[in-house]
Specification:
Elements: H1 3-26, H2 34-37, E1 45-51, E2 59-61, E3 64-65, H3 66-79, E4 86-92, H4 101-104, E5 108-115, H5 119-127, H6 137-148, E6 155-161, H7 172-181, E7 186-192, H8 197-210, E8 214-216, H9 220-234, E9 243-244, E10 260-266, E11 271-278, E12 282-291, E13 302-307, E14 313-316, E15 318-319, E16 327-335, E17 366-374, E18 388-398, H10 411-442
Parallel strand pairs: 1-4, 1-6, 6-7, 7-8, 9-10
Antiparallel strand pairs: 2-3, 4-5, 10-18, 11-17, 12-16, 12-18, 13-14, 13-17, 15-16
Helix pairs in contact: 1-10, 3-5, 3-9, 6-7, 7-8
Protein name: Inter-alpha-trypsin inhibitor heavy chain H5
Organism: Micromonospora haikouensis
Keywords: Membrane, Signal, Transmembrane, Transmembrane helix
C-alpha cells in the first residue's frame, strides 16, 4: 500500500474518532418541545365589535371618516391574523335607518362567525358597512360573549366605538360587571375613536370590570397597531384565566398566593405586595407584566423583588422583554435553600404558618414577599386612574442546584464527560499515529 493511500486511511480514521467521541458524550434524547407538552391546547378566540352608528360618518381622523379608518384597520388585521386564531366580527347600529329607538336598540349582528377566518369573505363583509343607526353597546357586548361561548382559555372582545351607549338599559358597564361576575373568563378591551370625556369614562369602566385595557386611537396607524396587539395578545392567554387579586401596601397584609396566574391594577409609581409560601428544597419562579394601556413617558420600567417578611431583599428580578412595545416585564427565581435564615413565619405577625397540604410532612414553608414596583410617569393629559393592568405569574417547583449562582450546576457532569471523551480521543489518535508512522517507514 503506498504512502498516499495510508495517509487517506489515517485521516479518515482520525476524523471519525474526533467526531464520535463528543457525540457519545453528548448523546441522549432530545429535549421535548413546549408545544408537544400540551397538544390539545384550545386556540385563541377573539371577537371584534365595531360601532357602525351614524356618528361614524364624521371625518376627523387623518381627514377621513371614522368608518373608513376602521374598515382599513380591520382589513390589515385580517390579513395579518395568525392561522390558529379564531376570529369573529360583530357590528352594532349597522342596519336600522329609522327613528324608532326600541327597534334601533336591537340592531346588532354577527357578520363573521367565530372560527378560522375566510379572509376574502371577512373583508367583503366589512367593506359593505355604512354608518346608520343607534349605539346599543351593552346589548352588543352581551351578544359577543355568547358568540365566543365557553372554554378553557380566556376569550377576548375588542370593542371599537366613537360614542357612548345610546340605548341603556342594559348599561354596558353593568353588562361588563355581569360577565365578570359569571366567571366567563372574558376580557374586554376598548378602543375610543373620539376625544370625548363621557365616552372615555364609559370605555374605561367596561375595560376595568373585565381586566381589559382602554386606548384612545387618534389615527389610522394607532387603531391598526392596537387591534393587532390585542389580537396577538389573545395567543398569550393561559389555559386558566388569570385570577383577580388585590395586592396590598405592605407585606404583612398581602394576599397569600398559590402557584397560578393573577391579575391586578397598579397606580403610577406604586408598590404592591403579595406573599408566597416556599418550602425548603423548593424554588420560587415569578414574573410580572404591565400592559401599557395609555400614553407614558419613554423612561419607564417595572421592578419585581422577593424579600423576607422583615424586609431583607432576597433577590431582585431582571427585565424580561419580549420585543413587544405595549408590555413591560420582569422575572426572578429564588430557592428556599438560598437563605437558611429566612423567617418561616407567614408574615402576618401571629407566628403561625399556612397549613400544609394533606399528607405533606415537609418542613414549614418560608414566606416570601413579592413586591411589584413601577417607575411609570404619565404624559401630560393622561389620567392616572384606574391603575395599569398587571399580570403576575407564580410557580413553585423543586429547586435546581444553585439556581442563582455563577457556577455550572449540573454542567459539571457534562464537563466531566467531555474531558473523558477528549482523553479517549487523544489516546486513540496517538495509537493511530504510531501505527501510521511505523507502516509508512516499512513501505
Amino acid at each position: 500500500m503506498n504512502k498516499r493511500r495510508w495517509t487517506t486511511v489515517f485521516r479518515g480514521l482520525l476524523a471519525a474518532t474526533v467526531l464520535v467521541g463528543p457525540a457519545v458524550a453528548l448523546g441522549g434524547p432530545a429535549p421535548a418541545r413546549a408545544d408537544e407538552e400540551n397538544p390539545a391546547a384550545e386556540p385563541p378566540r377573539v371577537e371584534l365589535v365595531l360601532d357602525v352608528s351614524g356618528s361614524m360618518r364624521a371625518r376627523d381622523i387623518d381627514g377621513r371618516s371614522r368608518i373608513s379608518v376602521a374598515q382599513q384597520a380591520f382589513n390589515e388585521v385580517v390579513d395579518a391574523l395568525p392561522e390558529e386564531t379564531q376570529l369573529g366580527i360583530r357590528v352594532l347600529g349597522a342596519t336600522y335607518k329609522g327613528k324608532d329607538k326600541k327597534v334601533g336598540c336591537q340592531d346588532t349582528q354577527q357578520i363573521v362567525p367565530v372560527g378560522r377566518v375566510d379572509r376574502a369573505q371577512a373583508k367583503a363583509a366589512v367593506a359593505t358597512l355604512r354608518p346608520t343607526g343607534f349605539t346599543p353597546v351593552g346589548l352588543a357586548l352581551r351578544s359577543a360573549a355568547a358568540d365566543l361561548g365557553t372554554g378553557a382559555t380566556a376569550r377576548r372582545i375588542v370593542l371599537i366605538t366613537d360614542g357612548e351607549d345610546t340605548c341603556a338599559p342594559p348599561d354596558p358597564c353593568e353588562v361588563a360587571r355581569e360577565l365578570a361576575a359569571q366567571g366567563t373568563k372574558l376580557v374586554v378591551d376598548t378602543l375610543g375613536l373620539a376625544p370625548d370625556e363621557k365616552v372615555r369614562r364609559q370605555l374605561l369602566c367596561i375595560a376595568g370590570a373585565t381586566g381589559g385595557t382602554y386606548t384612545a386611537a387618534q389615527s389610522a396607524e394607532e387603531l391598526t397597531g392596537r387591534i393587532k396587539q390585542l389580537v396577538d395578545r389573545a395567543r398569550d392567554t393561559y389555559t386558566a384565566a388569570p385570577t383577580v387579586v388585590g395586592g396590598s401596601a405592605r407585606c404583612p397584609d398581602a394576599p397569600l398566593l398559590a402557584p397560578g396566574v393573577y391579575t391586578d391594577r397598579e397606580q403610577f409609581s406604586e408598590h404592591r405586595w403579595y406573599r408566597v409560601p416556599v418550602r425548603p428544597g423548593q424554588e420560587l419562579r415569578a414574573s410580572v407584566s404591565i400592559a401599557l394601556d395609555r400614553p407614558v413617558n419613554p423612561d419607564h420600567a417595572v421592578l419585581l423583588r422577593a424579600t423576607a417578611p422583615d424586609g431583607r431583599e432576597l433577590v431582585r428580578g431582571v427585565d424580561a422583554g419580549s420585543g413587544r412595545t405595549d408590555v413591560v416585564s420582569a422575572g426572578l427565581r429564588w430557592s428556599a435553600a438560598a437563605d437558611d435564615d429566612a423567617d418561616a413565619d407567614d408574615g402576618d405577625g401571629d407566628g403561625e404558618t399556612p397549613s400544609p397540604a394533606a399528607g405533606d410532612t415537609a418542613a414549614a414553608p418560608t414566606t416570601v414577599c413579592l413586591v411589584v414596583s413601577n417607575a411609570f410617569a404619565p404624559r401630560t393629559g393622561t389620567r392616572a386612574s384606574p391603575g395599569m393592568p398587571i399580570e403576575l405569574t407564580v410557580d413553585v417547583v423543586a429547586s435546581s442546584p444553585d439556581p442563582g449562582g455563577p457556577d455550572l450546576g449540573r454542567g459539571w457532569v457534562l464537563l466531566l464527560l467531555l474531558t473523558l471523551a477528549g482523553l479517549v480521543t487523544g489516546l486513540v489518535a496517538g495509537l493511530l499515529t504510531r501505527w501510521w508512522v511505523a507502516t509508512w517507514r516499512e513501505n
